[in-house]
Amino acid sequence: MQFGSGTSDTKFSGPPKVKNQSKVKNRLRVKNRSRVMPKKKKRKGSRSAVNAFDASQLGNWEQDVASLAGMLVHEVKNPLSTLNISSQLLLEELGDPESPRDHRTQRRLETMRSEIQRIEKIVSSFLQLTRPQQMQRDSVDASRLVEDVISRNREAIELEGVNVFFQPMDVPRVAGDASLLHQAVLNLILNGCSAMSEGGEIFLRVLESTYRGSSAVVIEVTDTGVGISEEAIPRIFRPYVSTTEGGTGLGLPTTLRIIRLHGGTILVESEPGQGSRFSIVLPAEGSTQ
Exposed, middle or buried by CB within 10 Å (0-12, 13-18, 19+), for 154? Predict the structure, then answer.
């Protein structure tokens, strides 16, 4: 497969179709290296990989938001922590409610604490987004990295009604920070989960490719979610833009920032109602960009 070279042998027509899904669900494990992902059916008029949206087209927004980080630390985060602790203490003092009035008070305090925690999560995500990244370059096996992400998070993902399938392949290693790349892959998996409120499937695969004439390693994350319109795709990497209810709009910007630090990019292919495919494209170790 080639990206950005004018040729492609893949077309996006939604996620791969899994035969006998009832027999497959909840059985797949990362250690099963013999599993091959089902082939995707080509659909007339579907969008080819060469025409996928390339996030490298986007400008750098980091400087636009970094100046707000310090203010958020002192003006928002610290008071929120105080409110969170205070609401917890009030709930403990209330104990087991006996009267209808106490029940109402308990519900209101629980709602208050839940909303405070939600805001704290948004603030923490924003700070993580703007904080300077300390990147350590090591030789990283992309297939093993994806295996590790899945094994550490499979139970939590399956609790959301989402089944994860992975096709490992032998590919060149990449030079990068395993911890940051772990976060980037997990963010894309969670992004896919958020697009499937009623459950679904996520397919991951790692493959060797070329990008702009150089050897590259591609990590694909394909979901069976609601999909994204072509008009909305260029906006999803902007902070606070979310296509799913309850999303902070910070996961994809953070992911793009990490991949850019590694000299890579993210390609997006999607059709409404057909799911989405996000492809992390990283320079292979020793390649020139």
Answer: middle
Burial group, residue 130, by CB count within 10 angstroms (0-12, 13-18, 19+): buried
The DSSP code sequence of 31-78 is: T-TT--PPPPPP-TTPEEGGGSEEGGGSPP-HHHHHHHHHHHIIIIIH
pTM of the model: 0.64
CATH superfamily, region 2-51+136-283: Histidine kinase-like ATPase, C-terminal domain (3.30.565.10)
Q: How far apart are CA 83 and CA 86, in angstroms?
A: 5
Task: Say which residues have a Cβ less than 8 Å from residue 264's Cβ, sequence separation at least 6.
Answer: 216, 280, 281, 282, 283
Tell me what percent of the chain is helix, strand and coil, each rounded to the nearest 5.
45, 20, 35
pLDDT at 162 over 80: yes
Domain ranges of the chain: 2-51+136-283, 63-130
- The predicted structure's pLDDT at residue 84: 87
Task: For residues 6 and 49, give the distance between their C-alpha atoms in angstroms, rounded to a whole number.
Answer: 10
CB 40 within 8 A of CB 16: yes
- Residues paired with 162 in a beta bridge: 200
The number of residues in the chain equals 289
Give the integer Cα–Cα distance in Å for 10 and 16: 12
Place of tokens 């990206």: 3
